[in-house]
Amino acid sequence: MEQKQYYKILGVPRDASAKDIKKAYQLLAKKYNPAKNPGNEEWAEKRKSELVEAYDALINPAIRAQYDAVLAEQTAIVIPAPTTVTASGLPVKPARVRPQQKNKLARTAKDDIDPKVKKELEAKKRRRNTIFTVSGIAVAVTIVALIFYLIVYVLPFQKVVIRVDNESVKIDYLIRRVMMNSQGTTWDTLQAVVNERILSQEVPKVIGDVTPEDVDALMRATAQGDKETLTELEYSDWLRQQLNLSQLNEAQFRELFRVTLLQSRMYSHVAGQVSNMVPQIHLNYIVVKTYEEAEAAKARIDGGEDFAVIAKELSIDTTSAEKGGDVGWTPVELLQSNIKSSIVDLEIGVCSIPIALESSTDTTTVDAASYALVLISEKTEAMEATEDQLQGLRDYAFDQWMLQYQSSKTITFHGINNQYLDSETFSWISYQVDRLRKTIDYGTTDTTDTTDTSAGE
Fold first, then answer.
1. Structure pTM?
2. With CB atoms counted within 10 Å of each terminal CB, which end of the chain scores lower, N or C?
3. Domains of the chain as residue ranges with CATH
4. pLDDT digit string, tens, across residues 222-238
């Protein structure tokens, strides 16, 4: 007779401890309590009686030992399958159980499961599927949100807006520089950044680079200002505040001071080559608003009227008008390019044709676009420049040095959506600058190093 499977009834292994057996019994006794199985009381009572029998047998060490011995003996007995021989005397192999038969047996066992237990298993399966579905949707939404964040808040800021030869400047850096330059336009900042890249590339080739110690000295001098001394704590507070206000990281901030030193030293190098003996002309002019007014004034001068009289009458440049149009001795290099080209062959004492002036020039107080009639009363190939004129000549020489290298560089500007710097890009930059200014918490925000360590890639 086959021994009852007490271990299987309790759902414990054969080497289970008494504690495990007791715990398994208590859990299953609650599960198969007839009161908790309405409609299946008879089935539950049968299962509970099997549990009690199995528990009583296994919880008693003596009975369990006897049961284990019988169980081991039954397991050790091997009953050979009956052998059938054919007419020729060869044995016939026993029939195999087909997979279909195994599946049928498994389905039969599954059908024997308590309907309530089966219902609970199906409910758990549905909950598990629901959890998997919700988790999948959550992952998909997270991925979409991450892609949106990258497209809107990361990738546009990594686009290159300026290239100077092989060096590039990203739009994220330009936004911070525009924010620092509150008095200028975005285009002014673009030009300033381009000039900085040119200085950074070319000045070290001409006069050598500056050292980190030079940069430290300039930064500390700037932080000290008019103070007699500067402590390390004061310098650290100043640096932290500057990084907060500029939103640059420390390497970018130091690069600004490095370029400032390069520009200062290059300016001194170029200015030192400017002579104080330069060609000059004794300049006189009449400035009027329109070309027609300039033509009419020239006709009167050509007709014999005095240049000085007409200058006092018509010129809108009040400074020279009071002197009859007399500007005084002026270095030729300091004249506007269009005036300079117009007087190359102009004879002394002869009135020029109307010349279009650029607004806000060094030689006139007129801000709006206007026209001038020029008359040269004297000229010389070498006259000592005044201190103000010499300063202007030095500035002019440095500007020419910059223009020379600008023309030798491959400089390109790029927009956020195409290869051209368009109005949409300028508007987007302005929006980002305003947004960044609003988010700065002055004096408390700590600058996090999330940008490149230099302007370029």
1. 0.61
2. N
3. 1-77 (1.10.287.110), 160-272+404-439 (no CATH), 277-384 (3.10.50.40)
4. 999 999 999 999 999 99
